[in-house]
Design brief:
Two copies of one chain form a homodimer. With 391 residues, chain A is α/β, with parallel strands linked by helices. Chain A has three domains: 159 residues, Amidase signature (AS) enzymes (Alpha-Beta Complex); 141 residues, Amidase signature (AS) domain (Amidase signature (AS) enzymes, Alpha-Beta Complex), CATH 3.90.1300.10; 38 residues, no CATH class. Chain A contains twelve helices and eleven strands. The first copy, chain A, has a ten-stranded mixed sheet, sandwiched between helices. In chain A, helix 4 packs antiparallel against helix 12, helix 8 packs across helix 9 and helix 8 packs across helix 10. Chain A is globular and about 55 Å long. The two termini of chain A are 37 Å apart.
């Protein structure tokens, strides 16, 4: 399948019809090339992951679930190399086009999935989110996206990165499709939800660019209305950067454990920046990991306390809209650091998060995120739908 | 130009006739893809070095010198990525075949040049030697090879790695061709040379595998005869591993300075091991570099003292014959370390070195090296020829 959007992995021509009469009948979907599709190699966005591995004989759980629900698979999408990237630039297959901002990155690592949905090449698409890989491209491409509660959905047949943070997520352009797909994936009806309490993560808004924080205010106001005109401010103790540091200790170390045998055996071709990151990950000290693990326990306790039933927290999904494509590594380092810092709570605490489109800065999309308690995934989708209905 | 040997860079079809009536008329040569050939990109063994750079409009000095002497250029050869490798495995273009040991690596980084000459696809070939990149593939492929005195030959149009160690070298199958090409490159007649004193680097022989040291003894005996039955033993103070450490501090740091802007701008696709090496190089401490610079000064003084006029030092070119292809990074690390340790004196002190074939271990070639004082390049070539004439 070829396309101007460059969303799909070249050379993989796949179409699998969904089960007739399912709740998603009539919808099409694509799967990030981290998900097994029987009969096709799982490439993981690199030339060397599939080499020497057997072709999968079963679909990944997420693929099978959408097929069983009636959606038709139309392709496998480009990802950052073995999911190690947040911007969506892939040196082997090229960077998928961000249809909403063609001179900008699409966001990653679920870059092709987001691009395919944003360009209306399919109705929904599977991504993975370990450190922001669904949330960030959803924000940059103007889509709905979800990072479900960690541990809720089976990850069978999904190429892992950091198991204690890995999740399967999905994208949609419109909230009705988003709710249909979410219901099928979560195995739960999406009911109209009114939260009883809105908490605004004011430190996260302060961390974002001023233009982005301002652009998101109309969405925040509608959320506050929806929550019965409640609105409280909260600052994440002990601070976003401390949580970010903990996540950026735990996640890369787990990624190194995941990939080190492959790296040693295959000496794979990867972008310099990815290899440098893996090499740095291999040197993370045990003492630092110990500290980060304590911080994770503390963060989970704090988040559970904050997210009482009916409470939602809102924050900017990304600190800014998509940055320009093709920048140097040194220019992108601080950009990447800020994005990951604003996403770190997801992998660190495992709470579900939905990002909703609707705001723009200079015409570039940027998303607002809603977080709920563990297991409140369907409620968050319901809030997103109710928010749209208020327009 | 295609070939079973996989010596040549795919997609570069070049043939440039040498000047008629020159001293090398009738000979063909190939140039490692670090040398500029006008009208063709200089690829440097990677997919991303040439990107965004102008096509060279002039030949490199070494290419022009061979053309002017009458040799005909027939192709550009595969190299380890931007010369950062000693084994000759290239993930983008494949590993050139070692015709003398098809299941073994050819050695690198001048892998394609050595393979092309060993397979008789051309008579001679240009390589570069910073830390062993001519000496090692010559030893592994059973060829004559030279690392000239550092700073003697112009390096214009050659992709640099570590300028204080970079040299241009060449290969040949037979000593007559080796002498003809050497004369043209050095601009000096090759006279029959009898050294007055042979010094055997006994620590280097001890550092090599026992089988290799033993296999080289007949060549050492002939050398001693040639030197009027002189033979002294020497141990390199303060030890090969200390010299190796100094060189492996200075050379990678210079390589990082050479490549860091490219790496930052292009985020190039490279093998994980190469990227990891560059990332580690970027972290070499100034204090360590200061120590290594003192060691280099000391090593140069010691080498100059040892290499009085007429003196040659002999040592194994490599500690063992070519290792098997396709090993894991962790298996290859100690292999690479030992090879580089035995080659470090070249980049560290700048003295010329010629490696001669003729010994084998279990049928696999391994070379004996002769070192002379700075500027004694032609004398070393003459010794190699005299050694052959003694058979």
């Amino acid at each position: 399948m070829t396309d101007d959007i460059n969303a799909f992995v070249p050379g993989i021509d796949v179409r699998i019809e969904g089960r007739a009469g399912g709740p998603l009948s009539g919808l099409t979907f694509a799967a990030k090339d981290l998900f097994d599709v029987a009969g096709h190699p799982t490439g993981g966005g690199t030339l060397d992951w599939a080499r020497g591995r057997p072709i999968p004989t079963r679909h990944a759980w997420a693929v099978q679930t959408l097929l069983d629900a009636g959606a038709t698979l139309i392709g496998k999408t480009i990802t950052d190399e073995v999911s190690l990237g947040i911007l969506g630039e892939n040196p082997h297959y090229g960077t998928p086009l961000n249809p909403r901002a063609p001179d900008r990155v699409p966001g990653g690592s679920s870059s092709g999935s987001a691009a395919a949905v944003a360009a209306a090449l399919c109705d929904t698409a599977l991504g993975t989110d370990t450190g922001g890989s669904v949330r960030v491209p959803a924000s940059f491409c103007g889509l709905y996206g979800i990072r479900p509660t960690h541990g809720r959905l089976p990850l069978d047949g999904m190429l892992p990165q950091a198991p204690s943070s890995d999740t399967t997520g999905w994208f949609a352009r419109d909230v009705a499709t988003f709710a249909r797909v979410s219901s099928a994936m979560l195995g739960e009806a999406i009911v109209d939800a009114k939260p009883s309490r809105l908490v605004v993560a004011v430190d996260a808004f302060g961390f974002a660019d001023q233009e982005t924080a301002t652009a998101l205010q109309p969405l925040v106001k509608r959320l506050a209305q929806l929550a019965g005109d409640t609105r409280e401010d909260v600052l994440a103790p002990p601070g976003l950067s401390v949580w970010g540091r903990a996540q950026r200790t735990l996640q890369p170390w787990e990624a190194w454990i995941t990939f080190r045998d492959w790296v040693d055996r295959a000496n794979p071709r990867v972008a310099f920046g990815v290899a440098r990151g893996l090499a740095a990950s291999s040197m993370i000290a045990e003492s630092e990991r110990g500290w980060a693990d304590l911080m994770r326990r503390e963060a989970r306790a704090r988040m559970a306390h904050l997210l009482a039933p009916g409470t939602i927290v809102c924050l900017p999904t990304t600190p800014f809209p998509a940055p320009p494509k093709g920048q140097s590594l040194s220019a992108l380092n601080p950009v990447r650091d800020r994005i990951l810092c604003l996403c770190a709570h997801g992998g660190l605490t495992g709470v579900p998060q939905v990002t909703v489109p609707g705001a723009t800065v200079d015409g570039l999309p940027v998303g607002l995120s809603i977080i709920g308690a563990r297991g409140a995934d369907a409620m968050l989708v319901g809030v997103a739908r109710a928010l749209e209905d208020m327009r």
